[in-house]
Write a structure and sequence with these properties.
heterodimer; A: mainly beta; Immunoglobulin-like; four-stranded antiparallel β-sheet; 8 strands; about 0% helix; about 55% strand; B: alpha/beta; Oxidized Rhodanese, domain 1; 11 helices; 9 strands; globular
Chain lengths: ~100, ~280
């Protein structure tokens, strides 16, 4: 079975190379005071603010989503009540990069 | 059945995690999370390797479940407390699975791994040793599992609750957005299904919303509590989360989880499919 057979949390982070292909990838990194946020969660919300997906952050503070073309919001939750939102536009065949400082 | 019978909070876990008859179990698809750190004395179950048959598309049979629990040191009288990532998707799936095989005392940690982590509670890497048991499972309880023919027969008759995101329901996406977009042969949803994403049942920290909020959520979206219900998603774990809400928290009598879900239904030949957003 491949990783895509499940709905589960993939290994955190974005160390594996992204094969963008015909996917609309939203990828980014979360920092706090300049350091990566290694414990936390990134959630993808649709244009109506509804939850679409959530992944744990990698040890480098990284996350990745395979979205669809359109406008999305990435919302990050981290210990200590830290959170942050950022809007991002995804397109097919392109990697949309997000840098989020909490 | 009430909330306190099926849900525990972090304080309960912290005061019971050293009780030998309480077995904490982290359930994930990717067990790297467990290996990185888990609640003290928790063992792990791998959703795919441990709980799925390796040949057929099915979960492990009764003998396989007995062998698994015996080997992991879970006894018939132990209280099993499940938790995991993804807002307890896989823990809820495992809960449903333990119920299929008749385990008496099983609970979920409300909020799962996420809430525990966001509260900076202790995680350890030591793996506990539990002595093997002789676990005896019941015959599978088919009253809480829907297979494809029942699902087709339920169109327009039972409540069908599609718990995927609106974009998966409408056919825009084939899989949740943290996965590459490949899955069933066809996108869309089962005709007459209501789209009530699993996430609407959870707070941002992963805990379940109040019973009153939950009742209003489902009845407001067109679920008739006087009827039987089938919940589905893509592979049956998000819908296990909704099955838990409807059957265990709200006490609805006849709720089934369709674990074949969209990866099966969307690949069936000659069954009806609808596209487009919920009406």
């Amino acid at each position: 079975m491949t990783a895509s057979d499940g709905c589960g949390a993939p290994a955190g982070g974005v160390s594996a190379p992204a094969d963008v292909g015909d996917q609309a990838v939203v990828q980014g990194r979360v920092t706090h005071d300049g350091a990566p946020v290694a414990t936390g969660y990134a959630r993808l919300l649709d244009s109506g603010g509804d939850f679409v997906a959530e992944v744990p952050l990698g040890s480098d503070g990284g996350f990745r989503f395979f979205a669809a073309p359109g406008t999305w919001t990435v919302r990050v939750l981290a210990p200590g009540g830290l959170s942050g939102d950022q809007s991002v536009t995804a397109d097919t065949g392109r990697l949309a990069a997000v840098e989020l400082a909490l | 059945m009430s909330r306190s019978d099926v849900l525990v909070d972090a304080a309960w876990v912290e005061s019971h995690r050293d009780d030998p008859h309480v077995v904490l179990v982290e359930v994930d698809e990717d067990t790297a999370a467990y290996d990185k750190g888990h609640i003290r004395n928790a063992i792990k179950l791998d959703w795919q390797k441990d709980l799925q048959d390796h040949v057929r598309r099915d979960f492990v049979d009764k003998a396989g479940f007995e062998a698994l629990l015996s080997e992991r040191g879970i006894g018939n009288d132990d209280t099993v407390v499940l938790y995991g990532g993804n807002n307890n998707w896989f823990a809820a799936y495992a809960y449903w699975y333990f119920k299929i095989y008749g385990h008496r005392n099983v609970k979920l940690l409300d909020g799962g791994r996420k809430k525990w982590e966001l509260e900076s509670r202790e995680l350890v890497t030591e793996v506990p040793k539990r002595a093997a048991t002789h676990y005896t499972a019941s015959d599978p309880d088919s009253s809480i599992r829907a297979l494809r023919d029942e699902v087709v027969a339920a169109i327009g008759t039972w409540n069908l609750v599609d718990v995927r995101s609106p974009d998966e329901f409408s056919g825009k996406l084939l899989a949740p957005a943290h996965l590459p977009q490949e899955s069933a042969q066809r996108p869309g949803h089962i005709p007459s299904a209501r789209n009530i994403p699993w996430s609407k049942a959870a707070n941002e920290d992963g805990t379940f919303r109040s019973d009153d909020d939950l009742r209003e959520l489902y009845s407001g979206a067109g679920v008739d509590f006087g009827k039987d219900t089938i919940a589905y998603c893509r592979i049956g774990e998000r819908s296990a989360h909704t099955w838990f809400v409807l059957h265990e928290l709200l006490g609805q009598p006849n709720v089934k989880n369709y674990d074949g879900s969209w990866t099966e239904y969307g690949s069936l030949v000659a069954v009806p499919i609808e596209l487009g957003a919920a009406s």
